[in-house]
Amino acid sequence: MKTAIFAHRGASGYSPENTMPAFQLAYEMGTDGIETDVQLTKDGIPVLIHDEQVKRTTNGRGYIKDLTFEEVKRLDAGSWFSSRFTGASIPSLEEFLEWIEDKPLYLNIELKNNKIEYSNLEAIVYDMVLRYGLQQHCTLSTFNPESIKKIKKIGTSISAALLTSKAEVNPVTFAGNLGADAIHIKYRLFDESVVKEGKTKGMPVRVYTVNKSAHILRCLKLQADGIFTDLPDKAIEQRQSFYN
Ligand code: G3P
Ligand code: MG
Q1: Which of 48, 78, 151, 211 has the lowest CB atom count within 10 Å?
Q2: What's the domain count of the chain?
């Protein structure tokens, strides 16, 4: 099977990460899937942003957990990247699911609960994905091993992937023991043995964040199941020439 290409936070090399313009651009570039990060506002609304604080990617200050959805929606999440994107806002998960619903895209929703434990985040996201009927096209991922257990307790309709940036003795076995269906591994930990182990255990191995040509090529050669990249157009082009 060909290595799937996921636009990391949308086409974030060319547009402000985790915004609708970044998702739209990735779609137009022909990406197979989109990766995005989710956190909860003060009033419990799932929104798409990578950092726990809004400072780096908006014109505001503070933690997402301390801001209401209305306050979050007022922030400009585009102009930090370029004035061309002024007015882009932080999308809600719902807005994103509505947009993706009728598109042939795979989605990877990363639960950002390794620093802040958002109460009920797993169930909120899980139920919303089910409500849109996207369970077959979706993987929930997290760096938090306890969260994998929570997801699998909710149900088995949506696959769960453990994210890892630590050199576990055997990352595939570690993820499998938690009940994870897939492993999303940092590029520097990715090697032939992880792929082999993943294939033996029937566990997809996807690699983040892969932007350099040489690294993309290595992932293609070693047959990673997927890569997360900020430059989906480059990865698609490279994959085309690799398989031709
Ligand atoms: O899901 C892959 C990747 O996004 C994990 O790291 O920090 O970019 O969210 P991060
Ligand atoms: Mg992420």
Answers
A1: 211
A2: 1
